[in-house]
Structures are given as structure tokens and as C-alpha cells.
Amino acid sequence: MAQTRVEDLTKDAAREELSRLAGLIDAANAAYHGKDAPEIGDAEFDSLKRRNAAIEAQFPELKRDDSPSDRVGAAPGDGFAKVAHEVRMLSLGNAFDAGDVVEFDRSIRKYLGLSADARLKFTAEPKIDGLSLSLRYEQGRLVQAATRGDGAVGENVTANARTIDDIPQNLTDAPDVIEVRGEVYMSHADFASLNSRQTAAGGKIFANPRNAAAGSLRQLDPAITQSRPLRFFAYAWGALSAPLADTQSGALRRLAEMGFVTNDQTALCDGPDAMLAQYEQIEQRRATLGYDIDGVVYKVDDLALQARLGFRSTTPRWAIAHKFFAETAWTLLDRIEIQVGRTGALSPVARLVPVTVGGVVVSNATLHNEDYIAGRDSQGGEIRGGKDIRAGDWVEVYRAGDVIPKVSDVDLSRRPKDSVPYAFPDRCPECGSEAPREPGDAIRRCIGGLICPAQAVEKLKHFVSRAAFDIEGLGAKQVEQFYRDGWIAEPADIFTLKDRFGSGMQQLKNREGWGEKSADNLFAAIEEKRTIPLNRLLFALGIRHVGESSAALIAGHYASWANLSAALGTAVPETEAWDDLNGIDGVGAVMAGSLTAAFRPGAERDAIDRLVAHLTVTDAARRGAVDSPVAGKTVVFSGTLEKMTRAEAKAKAESLGAKVAGSISARTDLLIAGPGAGSKATKAAELGVTTLDEDGWLALIAGQ
Q: Coil, strand, or helix at residue 142?
């Protein structure tokens, strides 16, 4: 069956889909990690997880307590003793195309405060398709071997691991404690020989080398494991009593010197171009390696930078797995349709003759924007060899784990002779308003605002979402129903719903699907949300470029609704209010422009005022510690920081209750000035702002 697009799911359907996906992912994990007998392919598994994540992003209030997004692997089986990993064994984030790899590099540079031309090395190594194993050595002797399990607790397979020739029993010149991690696998030749012996003996035939390796390692009888031709590649480590080296590549050399087998296809790369070149080389050699791989893993080489980058909940920030392309399929592109989103973005979607791709029937593919359709990237360079996409084309579609598939190629030999290039609309298909494309923006956007039904409905859905007003019983489905019937047209209408439809012939309880109890519950839920924190209100307004975190920053800066609305209503360039707004760390000219446009006199401001008339807006809570030396103070960082990045310094200041601004003003309490502070230091001196160097800052917050 073709999947319903995430954007088209109702709240009830999304809840059911998350339940279905959790069951499928749990079953797949149990089959892959617990039974060593995968029931679906990697691409389909990746697709399930990506779809689950996309639905959670669209409906964060529906995220399950047992969400697959927060788990690694599967629980250990009952046949083995349990082992708690001293250092968790995490999974890796995935990249599916060159753009993801470039973004990986960019995000690391941004986090570390490195410029685009600063040298940053990565290792690139084949991603072995086997079973993860952690080997613990104490005083050079193998004392324990454990599978990954759920990342925190694995299975004790020490006796079995001792039978694998690639795993040393004793190490020389090793730290007193070291956990060596890697992958147990089986070569293609050994796999073929094993299946031949199994056939001759009337035994079990394995589906692939990964199944054979995992099943062999997890035998309750070590003698069976010993009879299987298992191998081991070392590529990482867990607990260590002493460092192995300063770099990932140096640590791999050290592991090899200790007697472990490391992968000779691993290369050191200077940036994304070299990483992608290595990916292509490994992909070309894939069939000749003699063992299964399903991608390439990139890791920041400098171990000190790895430590600074740290981890997310289930993945490291400093590594990513670049998966090989999943299955592709050719199908007919029937038509191109334009969808209009909450911010007015015109998004083209290819409607396809349904086709099975990677085990799933798909009928839609994203076309991104008009440049993508025309065969160009955002810089005007060619993609797909410059081939444009038209209705009636035969297109190659790939999924690569994405919720909505993508078009990778066009077969020009099958293009109809009367075919014409697609003309991207310059007017909104929903309301007819102009849809200009602003300089530097890859997307055309409808300027209709609230008169555009597509934007109005999406804005209302956003308004009632979990991170915004989170009104129980009023989800996307109900919003669409009430809007379609003329009951609500803007957020203020929600708070007059009971007055208008709480009694009389058209009252809510008489509608299909509603009753007295459900109607009363909805009115009570609406009443409960008349009091709302400032940051949630600001996020709920759906102003372009203002996300949940930036709404919190802005709310924290202005503290109250009165201050915020007055300041934003008068903030224009070259005024103190404009400079103050742009001085908030994380707010730039683009976001400031969106905010001030929404609060200037006009239809949007009128709608905001009508809404706030029904609300009690509570002031923003003070962030971070309240007893630190910088609590409540406005801090600006300028120049080069040598002992921490700007991101790290900002996070520390905010955790101590400070407000971090981007520019000096009369409201600034403290400037932290490194080398190159320049004009900010000059202005701080003029205004009498206290200025500290980096050492002074660290001394001020010492012990906090």
C-alpha cells in the first residue's frame, strides 16, 4: 500500500502510524539483533525509522515513551548472561547523499567555531555489515566479550569470542584497561564454504554472511562457534585507562600494533570532497572486497575535537554513516502538483504511477523547488546532467531511507515528442496571490498570508501543536473541519468557540463525531489555555524563521508581552529598538525582519491583537542559575576565544542565567573580548561597559 504523506496525517492517524511503526521497528530489531535473521532490508528499516522521526517532528506531543528514536539495537537475549557496558555502544546517524555529507562537515565546523577553510581531517572506512562486539582487556588479558545489545546492556559471549582467530587473547603494550570494539563478520568465500558444509550435513542454510556471522557468534555452545569461520575488524574503543593516540587514525595504527586486524581500506580525508571521493572508490571496490559492506563511516580524526563534539542521545556528533544507495525503480511521472505550506512556500510534488521501491509502494516524490525541476542546483550548476523534469517523463526513483522518495534520473529517450518544460507558477494555486522568489531564496512564497486558505489552515494547525498552545482535543483534523465549515478562521476564533457554538441549533455537541462530553472537554481545554507563557505564544504565532528555541531566546530578552509587542511594533532599521532586537544572540536581520513585519500595523498585527485580548500572557521565566555572578546580566562575546568556542561560551553563560547578546548597547553589562574584538570593544569603552578577557571570564565563572 502507498503510504500517506506525513503532512497529510491527522492526529489520530499519526498516533496509529507511530504505534504501527514502533511494532515494525521492534520486530525488525528483534529479528536482526536478537534472532540474527533480518526480515526486512536495511533500506526499508532506515525508511521506517525516518518516517517515525518525521511523524514525531510533525506531532511531537504523540512521541511514545518507548519511541524507536531513543533506542539502539535490541534487548539482550535470554540465553546469555547480561553485561553492562561501561561506555555505551551507540549507533550512527545516516547520510544518504553528498548533500548530507557536506552538511555533516558544516555542522561540525559551526559547533566547533571553525571557518569554512580551516583544516579539518576525517577518517573514511568501510561500514562492515556484521555484528558489533566489545572486547574488554585488563592487564593485557581478554576478560570479557559482549554484544552491543540495546547499547547499555549486551550479551556475554566471552567463551565464543575466544575461538575467533582475529581476536587476540593477550595484548602487549596496551593500557591497563581497554575495551576494543569492532565487527564480527564472515567473508564471502567462507560463507559459501559454510553453506556447502551445511547442505551436505542437512543443516541450516544461512541467507547471507551477516546472518551467518551473528548466528555463529551467539551460539550457546562455543564449539559450534569455533567450527564457524568468523573474523573480526577492530575500529573503535570504549573504556580506556590511558589514551591510545591523539587521532582516530593514530589509534587504529595502535590497535594494529597490538595485534588486531584493522581495515586497510580506511583513508584520511581533508574535507567533504575527499570523503566523497573515498566513498566512490570504496563503492567501486565493493564487489571485490570479499566481505559485505553497506556504506562508508566518516569520523573526525582529532580525538580532542571528538571529545568536544560529544554525543546526542543515541549517536555521536563526530561520526556519520554514508549509506550506499537503496533500490531504485523507474516509473511514469503523471503530473506535477504544487502544495502550499504554512509559511506560503510553494513545494512541487511529483505524482507517480505507483511503483514498488525497496519493498514499499510509492506514488509521490519530492521535487524540492523550481531549480531542481529545471536540472539546476541553487548555484545554477547542473544536476542530473542538466536534464529537466516534465509531466509524462519516465523517471528513476530512489528512497534511500527518505519518507518521500526522490527523482535521481530522467530517461530522455522515452520523453514524449510533444513534451514541454514545466512552467513553475508565479501565483499561489490556492488563493491566486503573487508568489515571488526573494533574492537568495530557493523557494517561491505566496504573499496572501491569512487570506490564503492553505496558509491559514497550516498556521492554525501550528497554533494548536504541542510546542505551542497544545489544546487537548483540538488537533489537525478538528482544525481542518472547523475551518472548512467557517467556525474558525484565525486563532482568536478558537477562544470564542464556546460563545458561538456552545448552545443553540448549531452547537458543537450536535455535530457528527461529537457529543456533550467531548464538546465540554474541548471547551474546558480551550479555557485552560487562556493563560500561556510568553515563549509559547510567540512560537504559536507561526512567524517565519521563529522556531521554538529562538522564541524562547526572544521571550527571555523582552520578559513580558507588553515589552515585546511594543518593541517589535516600533523596531525599524537605524532605531534603538531595531539594534536591541538584532543584538539578541541568534537573531539576525532576516528573523528580525519577519518579527517586525508581523508586529507592524496591518492585518497580521490586528489578528495578533484580537488573539491576545482573550489571553493572559505570563512573563518569561529566568533561564539558568539564579545565584551565579552573571545571573540576569546581558553578556556579549567578541573577538577570538582560544579556550572554548563561541557556542560553548554562549551555552555556559546561558546555563548560569545570563542573557547573551550579539551587539553592544546601553543594556550590556559585560563584554568578553578576545583578540580582534575591534569596534565592540571601542563601543563598550564609550558606554562604560565592563570588559574582561577570556581568562577573566573563566575566573569569574570558576566553580559554577
A: strand
Spatial separation of the C-alpha atoms in residues 37 and 193, rounded to whole Å: 19
Close Cβ partners of 20 (under 8 Å, ≥ 6 residues apart): none
What is the C-alpha separation between 703 and 155, in angstroms, rounded?
41
Pure H helices in 514-588: 516-528, 534-540, 548-558, 561-570, 576-582
How confident is the model over 657-681, as a mean pLDDT?
A: 83
634-700 matches 330-414 in CATH topology:
no
pTM for the whole structure: 0.46
Cα separation of 170 and 140, whole Å? 5
Question: Within 10 Å of residue 591's Cβ, how many Cβ atoms?
Answer: 20
Second CATH level (architecture) for the domain 533-618: Orthogonal Bundle (1.10)
- Per-residue pLDDT band for 2 (boundaries 50, 70, 90) equals very low
Report the DSSP beta bridge partners of residue 322. 95, 296
Residue 70's pLDDT band (cuts 50, 70, 90): low
Residue predicted with more confidence, 57 or 483: 483
Judged by DSSP in three states, 447 sits in coil
Per domain, the residue ranges of the chain are 6-71, 83-323, 330-414, 449-529, 533-618, 634-700
Q: Give CA separation, 325 vs 47, 98, 358, 656, in Å.
A: 12, 11, 11, 46
- Judge contact between 409 and 387, C-beta under 8 A: yes
Q: In degrees rounded to 5, what are phi and psi of residue 672?
A: -100, 110
Domain topology for 449-529 = DNA polymerase; domain 1 (1.10.150)
Catalytic pick from 11, 49, 127, 680?
Answer: 127
Q: Which of 362, 430, 433, 429 is nearest to 395 (CA)?
A: 362
Q: Are 436 and 413 in contact (CB under 8 A)?
A: no
What digits encode the pLDDT tens for the residues 153-184? 889 999 999 999 999 999 989 999 999 999 99
Question: Which has the closest alpha carbon to 608: 550, 567, 560, 565?
Answer: 565
What's the fold here for domain 6-71? Helix Hairpins (1.10.287)
Residue 510, CB-side half-sphere exposure with 13 Å CA sphere? 7
Determine the CATH number of domain 330-414: 2.40.50.140
Is 224 in a helix, a strand, or coil? helix
CA distance 94 to 111: 19
Candidates 650, 678, 655, 680; CA nearest to 668 is 680
**Cell 523596531 maps to which residue?**
571
Q: Which CATH class is domain 83-323?
A: alpha beta
Q: What are phi and psi for residue 45, nearest 5 degrees?
A: -65, -45
Q: What is the CATH number of domain 634-700?
A: 3.40.50.10190
DSSP code per residue over 276-314: HHHHHHHHHHGGGSSS-EEEEEEEESBHHHHHHH-B-SS
- The candidate with the shortest Cα–Cα distance to 685, out of 661, 664, 658, 659, is 664
Cα gap 132→232, rounded to integer Å: 9
Q: Rounded to an integer, what distance in angstroms lies between the CA atom of residue 445 and that of residue 439?
A: 12
Kind plus residue range of the DSSP H or E element containing 273: helix 272-285
What string of H, E and C letters represents the secondary structure of 573-611? CCCHHHHHHHCECCCCHHHHHHHHHHHCCCHHHHHHHHH
Q: Tell me, what amino acid is at 493?
A: D
Three-class DSSP labels, 642-692: CCCCHHHHHHHHHHCCCEEECCCCCCCCEEEECCCCCHHHHHHHHHCCEEE
The C-alpha cell 512556500 sits at: 345
Residues 345, 351, 357, 362, Cα dihedral to 10° = 90
Is 127 designated active site?
yes
